[in-house]
Specification:
Layout: E1 7-11, H1 17-26, H2 33-42, E2 44-50, E3 56-65, E4 69-77, H3 86-100, E5 104-109, H4 111-119, E6 123-135, H5 149-160, H6 165-173, E7 178-181, E8 188-193, E9 198-204, H7 208-220, E10 224-231, H8 235-243, E11 247-256, E12 269-271
Parallel strand pairs: 4-5, 9-10
Antiparallel strand pairs: 1-2, 2-3, 3-4, 5-11, 6-10, 6-11, 7-8, 8-9, 9-12
Helix pairs in contact: 1-2, 5-6
């Protein structure tokens, strides 16, 4: 019997969040228990366990958005179980699930994953990169004013071509989340706590200058390690990050299995929510 034949297929629920978190922690990822809970309650997380009640060794998640878009992420395999086709099998389950809902699968792929996804029919969209930096704390943080979830969700939908109201509402109700709105309330930025660093994004703005103002305000309210995912299109924003001491951590390519507005860089989308959410 091949090792993979001893695995048990499972669909993760809220009770499985600690096991999912242990898997992403082992990979050094930034996802939190809140992120895993959201995938388990709002989407579908397919997993494989070693035996009926053994440790979780692989996962992949499918998260449907309004407007016929489905996000695929959290493709994780324990190093001891790699190169046995587990990720490919779980990806196929995500794609089949999203297609059953009438949703076009979309994901952010690493360069290594890009080649595998091209082979199963995904097409390249835009390039992006994760930037990492350390921000000096400026002292006590002022209390963040209550955020209007409806305004933030509407702006996000305009910039992404799909509705993610439940995602934005979840971000806003988390402890430690901070949101900034532009003076005219035509743009916003969210900073939320991650497992390894503060995650900045999404950031929606009228133009690159307005985006930079929102980003600078968001960074002034945090301290420590910071991650943000920026489309390569925004040269001025990337140049400012370099001047501020941020470094490029890794690159991604947005890919879709069919036509999807979210696979193109919108003129108002400057920082993404992260590869796990788009």
């Amino acid at each position: 019997m091949a090792p993979s034949e001893a695995l048990t297929s499972v669909t993760l629920g809220p009770a499985d969040v600690p096991d999912g978190l242990a898997l992403s922690d082992a990979a050094g990822w930034n996802q939190t228990a809140d992120d895993w809970r959201l995938f388990a309650t709002q989407g579908r997380v397919f997993g494989l366990r070693d035996g009926d009640a053994g440790p979780l060794v692989a996962t992949a998640a499918a998260l449907p958005y309004d407007g016929g878009i489905g996000w695929v992420s959290m493709v994780l395999v324990n190093p001891a179980w790699r190169h046995q086709g587990l990720a490919t099998a779980l990806m196929a389950r995500c794609v089949a699930h999203l297609r059953s809902l009438g949703a076009t699968p979309v994901l952010d792929a690493t360069p290594a994953g890009q080649q595998a996804y091209l082979r199963i029919g995904f097409e390249d969209g835009f390039a992006l990169a994760r930037w990492e930096g350390t921000v000096a704390a400026t002292g006590a943080r002022a209390a963040a004013p209550p955020a209007d979830a409806a305004v933030v969700s509407a702006l996000d939908a305009q910039a992404n071509g799909c509705g993610r109201g439940f995602l934005l509402a979840d971000f806003l109700q988390r402890s430690g989340t901070r949101v900034g709105l532009s003076p005219a309330r035509t743009g916003f930025v969210i900073a939320r706590e991650g497992r390894r660093a503060t995650q900045i994004g999404p950031l929606v703005a009228d133009d690159e200058s307005a985006a930079l103002s929102l980003l600078q305000a968001a960074l002034a309210g945090v301290g420590g390690r910071v991650f943000l995912d920026v489309p390569e299109r925004w040269a001025a924003l990337r140049a400012w990050l370099e001047q501020a001491g941020f470094v490029r951590q890794r690159s991604f390519v947005r890919m879709s299995l069919g036509a999807a507005p979210i696979a193109s860089v919108n003129d108002r989308l400057f920082v993404l929510a992260g590869p796990e959410f788009g």
